[in-house]
Amino acid sequence: MALNLTIAVASGKGGTGKTTVSANLACAAIEAGHNAAYLDCDVEEPNGHLFLKPRISHIYPVGIPVPVVNEEKCTKCGACGEICQYSAIVKISKTVLTFDNMCHGCGGCSLVCPAGAITEKERPIGVIEEGDAGGVSFIHGRLNIGEAMSPPLIKAVRKAGLHGNLTIVDVPPGTSCPVIAAVRGVDYVLLVTEPTPFGLNDLGLALDMLRELGIPGAVVINRSDPEYNHLAHDFCRERGVQILAEIPDERRVAEAYSVGELAYYAVPGYRKIMQQLLTSVEREAIG
Amino acid sequence: MKVAITSQGKTLESKVDTRFGRAGWFVVIDTNTGDYNAVSNEQNLNAKQGAGIQAAEQVSRQEVSALITGNCGPKAFRTLMAAGIKVYYGTEGTVAEVLEQFHNGTLSEASDANVDSHWV
Q: Which of A182, A270, B34, B41 has its Cβ near the most Cβ atoms within 10 Å?
């Protein structure tokens, strides 16, 4: 079946199992004969490689454009500082100061400069590594240590992964700018949650975010537990969101995780859950 | 000359504000005449980033030669230096008291920022 589908795996709360679900889903996709790509957009702490064990074949830097002011051409008009929303460039007294690590790389200052005194240089923020993981096209970003500006790197990872016909995007946790950068433009989002009050509270925030962005999605309950599942079921019914899979809380899954093994191959029953999840996602996303 | 002092309020009796970028007010005093006015820093109190730089810009617009505050980070300090404003650290008491210390020469001119950046 020829697909062209991008699925993001996200969650409000951290540690709910985004990487577990997305890496294992990638295995199911390969077995189903798809040309699958796995994109780890959690660039501050990528960990999908620990499970998919890719052979990296291509590494390249990613940067953002920051301004360089030609003092001789500069007329000290201050237009650059007025347009900048981040205080990354400021005219003070008879000079213009730039603060590279405050700059979001929008290019506004060079556009408004009437003297053509501003050019741009690339400030490196991280690298992208690409390779093959048992048939899965593997791409992840690694943000430089101490770097605060992750969205440009996340966007670059998304752009690098455009060639798969089934692309799975492993999203950082939360609901802020890095998450938006990772999910914007995907076809469908799986929100992984635990059936706990903490998990459900943050799931609610993530659902609000998706509604704001207008992206359809459904819920995957990870570490499902007969004692607590009713909380998740009630919550999803109230919010009018579908549950596409329930992954039981099993010690063997945690054991596989702890040694970097894919539960897909290591834990009986897991393969079937992921195959069914893949089928459900395709059905829902293609509609 | 004109001196700016970070302040929690609008008068000479107000307590000094130890913060620079997110100070409540800047009390600007003309040391020749004794006249003063207070400049609100409200827009920087909730700034996501760059409060120190913006505050330095604002103080610079008051055409002061010196700033007295409690703490100053590296970006604010660099901006103040570019504006040719000397920085003095003084944190005890009211604006009037700190101004007196400045006149008496008990505050020494800062050669560097005294706190770390909040942002990378």
A: A182
